[in-house]
Amino acid sequence: MYKIFYIMTNILAMSYRESSMRAILFAAAVSLVAPTALAQHAAAPPAGATANLQGGDTEKFMNNDYIRRFYSLSVTTLKGQAHPDLAAYEQKSYAIFREFGTAMGVGPEHMQDHLKLIPRQLAQIAKDDPHVLDTFDSFKEAMVGPK
Question: In the chain, what percentage of residues exceed pLDDT 70?
Answer without folding.
Answer: 60
